[in-house]
Request: fold
Amino acid sequence: MTVKVYDRLPEEAKAIRTEVFVDEQGFTEEFDSADHTAIHLVGFIDNKAVATSRIIKINDTDYMIGRIAVLKANRKGGLGARIVYVAEDIIREHGGNNAFIHAQMQAVPFYERIGYTLTGETDVEEGCPHAMMSKKL
Reply:
């Protein structure tokens, strides 16, 4: 997978997030003002956009990785981990050393496998339980 980095929300990321979060999972508040300032990543296989995420700067050392999505047909191939690892590299390049993810509870085991730990903070977003996770980079 080749990952491209954007300083604006590209149509490919918008399409993936709509398919995964709106159509599949039923979220209605997918797009927000953070999309205007975030760094956006899109993963491509054979010129087809298959994965996305975004990075939001919290402060000089802390960054949030969010909206991590892989198209259903491309799951189970390591692409979710790959898009997160690229995001972590970008955070390091910007001088950050802590990454946070507001994870859906069903995805917590996946994030634990790639080095994230629960912070203890949980909440419900659009009826879906979430947990805050972090990783020292």
